[in-house]
Design a protein that fits this description.
CATH architecture: Ribbon
CATH class: Mainly Beta
CATH superfamily: Umud Fragment, subunit A
Order of helices and strands: HEEEEEEEEEEEHEE
Distance between the termini: 39 Å
Radius of gyration: 25 Å
Structural class: alpha+beta
Helix content: 10-25%
Largest sheet: 7 strands, antiparallel
Strand content: 25-35%
Number of helices: 2
């Protein structure tokens, strides 16, 4: 990559070449092994670029986003939804870390919106990725009262929230049930799982930096129900489901 080779014509069937010779002034003919190696290398490079900057596949391992996302759902995430973000490392290393802004956006295409389902670097362990729904953006006042979410002083419209605990099982001592009010700082986001009563989210560990958002969840392309007794436990109806 980075250079170009002279255009080489195919030899005509009626003009056989002399063994071991190349046309005068022409580039040496590449071996088949080298050509396959170069093609393989280019394919790997393109795959890395696509995975890092464009689209990445993820698998859901927990039920914190049920019923929107189920355990065993495989989804595609748009990594250009909000801008161009550099990876956190290059194969675990940070060469030129004083110059290259690893884990930051170098181009911004638009804001992260309240209600988006996003993948982000977990603040307490940067080797892990989490997926949650954005509940509060900078300036929002968020609170939880008896499990229900309040936004800017009023009950938040919450069509995606799922609750299964009765009122008598809730407690003032748990941020799951009673939290805030807090004002989301500039450059931060407040996240919650749609399975509100069974989600480890911002109520427990705080805010997410805007730069930590890796992309927006797009679509489910495969779903496997490992708890099913079926011989082929595929959730066919979830194929192609757009994530909202």
């Amino acid at each position: 990559m980075g250079g170009s080779e002279p255009v080489r014509s195919f030899a005509k069937a009626s003009e056989p070449r002399k063994a071991g010779l190349e046309p005068a002034g022409g580039a040496p003919r590449k071996s088949a092994l080298r050509e396959y190696g170069e093609a393989f290398g280019i394919a790997i490079l393109l795959a890395l670029i696509i995975r890092t900057f464009l689209i990445q596949a993820y698998k859901i391992p927990s039920g914190s986003m049920e019923p929107t996302l189920l355990i065993g759902d495989h989804l595609l995430v748009d990594k250009l939804a909000y801008g161009l973000r550099l990876p956190d490392t290059l194969f675990g290393l940070k060469p030129l870390s004083g110059i290259i802004p690893y884990g930051h956006y170098v181009l911004n295409f638009g804001p992260v919106h309240r209600g988006d389902v996003v993948v982000f670097v977990f603040p307490l362990d940067r080797t892990k990725d989490f997926i949650k729904r954005v509940i509060g953006v900078a300036g929002d006042v968020v609170a939880v009262k008896n499990g229900r979410v309040y936004l800017n002083g009023a009950p938040m419209p919450d069509p995606h929230g799922h609750y299964d605990l009765p009122l008598e099982d809730r407690t003032r001592l748990s941020p799951r049930d009673n939290f805030g009010p807090v004002t989301v700082p500039k450059g931060k986001l407040l996240m919650m799982g749609d399975n509100r009563d069974h989600s480890y989210d911002s109520r427990f560990w705080g805010y997410v930096n805007r730069n930590a958002v890796e992309g927006k969840a797009l679509v489910i392309y495969w779903s496997w129900n490992s708890d099913s007794n079926s011989l082929l436990p595929v959730r066919w109806r979830r194929f192609g489901m757009v994530i909202r």
